[in-house]
Design brief:
Elements (H helix, E strand, L loop, with lengths): L3 E3 L2 H4 L5 E3 L2 H7 L5 H7 L16 H19 L7 E6 L8 H18 L2 E8 L2 E2 L23 E4 L26 H11 L4 E4 L22 H17 L5 H9 L3 H10 L2 E2 L11 E6 L14 H18 L7 E6 L2 H7 L6 E4 L15 H14 L4 E5 L9 H9 L7 E4 L4 E3 L6
Parallel strand pairs: 3-4, 3-7, 6-7, 9-10, 9-12, 10-11, 12-13
Antiparallel strand pairs: 1-2, 4-5, 8-11, 13-14
Helix pairs in contact: 5-6, 8-13, 12-13
Length: 432
């Protein structure tokens, strides 16, 4: 695997996403070349291409549409010719956890690409604007000032079963294999396809269903031109984005969480502190999801599964790192008890010290620190070289919280393991 570094730091001197900066990594998402990140960070103003060079990627073309729509909004406001889609998750409304919300948000973004709409999100949890945790690559993905959401048509919400419907994450299938063929996304496509200038959607259905649509079944009510645009865009996405990284490619395109990780150094929040002032370069992550009740210290964890997962992580690390390399194990879990007790089990181990927080179910904590606590382990896993998760069971299960983080880091599928108290197995491809 290539050295983890910034894809654009050589161009603009700033830290961006941590992913392998080689041509192969860009091909996983179809960004085509590193310059797309320079364009993204420059507000969509793409560099001129030499004559005869390949045409812009599907991502670059969408940046052009986004910037043009934002410019029109600033000059003219919302008009009858505007085409805008907003994903909405307001404070006080149940939107699901971090991974639930990310799934719904990225689904709306992909459908906006198909239906020729600019995409924005309005995302507030625990009294905090989530965008404040992110580097948005210089692009205006947040609802612009002057665009009042109440002026838009709200076409989807819990009342029409866009939340937790048949495409909700299935622990038994990882994040690339779902039971239905994009049923919920098809409903959203119809709502977004029409001529309404601005539509607002709520939901957390997964985007992978879109990749299952036959091109011939994608038909726009707005006529042949819109149908062709939708089909061409879907065909380009299918050709560009590996199915294993559908969520990760969209998340890398929209944001990175380096501002979240920066707080680790400022606040020295990794334990044990004397050994980990900063996030280590080489590590594998273990994510053990024992159940939501652990967020309120009412749950239990399995010490046998904890020990089995750590043994699996030791084995994985020995495979991934060479002799003489310093490497570590990061434990992420919803159980504070498991995290605290684990530090005695391995000299390689480190954990995030803050108390665990669930974005959708927390009732006592609010503000920036609480949101950071909810997102931090996910952000750390995006930098991991390998991942150990639970085998599916009632005691401990796979979780899209870490699975989506592995996608963001473009982690090779073969670097993921499923473990329990006695086994450590390579994931089947369809479980990634």
């Amino acid at each position: 695997m290539s050295k983890v570094t910034s894809a654009v730091s050589a161009m603009d001197g700033t830290l961006s996403i941590a992913q392998p900066a080689d041509e192969d990594s860009f091909r996983l998402c179809g960004y085509r070349r590193p310059e797309v990140w320079a364009a993204s960070r420059d507000g969509g103003r793409l560099k001129s291409e030499a004559q005869g060079e390949k045409k812009p990627s599907v991502w670059e073309r969408y940046l052009q549409l986004q910037v043009a729509e934002v410019k029109s909004l600033k000059q003219n406001g919302l008009t009858n010719t505007s085409r805008i889609a907003i994903w909405l998750c307001p404070n006080g409304e149940h939107c699901g956890g971090w991974a639930d919300e990310v799934r719904g948000l990225t689904t709306v973004m992909y459908l906006a690409m198909l239906t020729g709409r600019a995409f924005f999100f309005s995302w507030h949890r625990l009294g905090q604007d989530i965008s404040q945790l992110m580097d948005l690559h210089g692009n205006p993905w947040v609802v612009p000032e002057g665009l009042n959401i109440s002026m838009c048509t709200q076409v989807a919400g819990p009342s029409v079963k866009y939340w937790n419907d048949d495409e909700i994450y299935l622990a038994s299938a990882g994040f690339a294999d779902y039971t239905r063929e994009g049923t919920v996304a098809k409903l959203a496509f119809k709502d977004m396809d029409g001529g309404t200038p601005c539509v607002v959607l709520r939901g957390n259905s997964v985007p992978v269903g879109i990749w299952k649509w036959p091109l011939g079944q994608v038909i726009s009510a707005r006529g042949a031109g819109a149908t062709q645009h939708a089909r061409d865009t879907l065909e380009a996405l299918k050709a560009s984005v590996r199915k294993e990284y559908i969520l990760g490619c969209a998340m890398n395109f929209l944001w990175d969480l380096s501002p979240v990780l920066a707080s680790l150094h400022a606040k020295r929040q990794l334990l044990p502190q004397k050994e980990h002032a900063d996030l280590p370069l080489n590590f594998v992550s273990v994510h053990l999801r024992f159940g939501d009740q652990n967020f309120w210290h009412k749950g239990t964890y399995s010490s046998e599964i904890l020990l089995g997962a750590l043994r699996c992580a030791e084995k994985l690390g020995e495979e991934l790192f060479t002799a003489g390399e310093d490497w570590y194990i990061h434990l992420a879990t919803d159980s504070d008890s498991a995290a605290n007790s684990s530090l005695k089990l391995s000299k390689r181990l480190f954990v995030y010290e803050a108390q665990r927080v669930h974005l959708d179910k927390e009732v006592a904590k609010t503000g920036l620190d609480a949101v950071r606590a909810a997102v931090m382990d996910h952000a750390i896993i995006t930098r991991a070289r390998g991942l150990v998760s639970c085998r599916t069971s009632k005691t401990c299960r796979l979780s899209a919280y870490s699975e989506s983080a592995a996608q963001v880091g473009l982690m090779p599928v073969q670097n993921a393991r499923s473990a329990d108290s006695s086994s450590c197995e390579i994931r089947p491809p369809n479980h990634w």
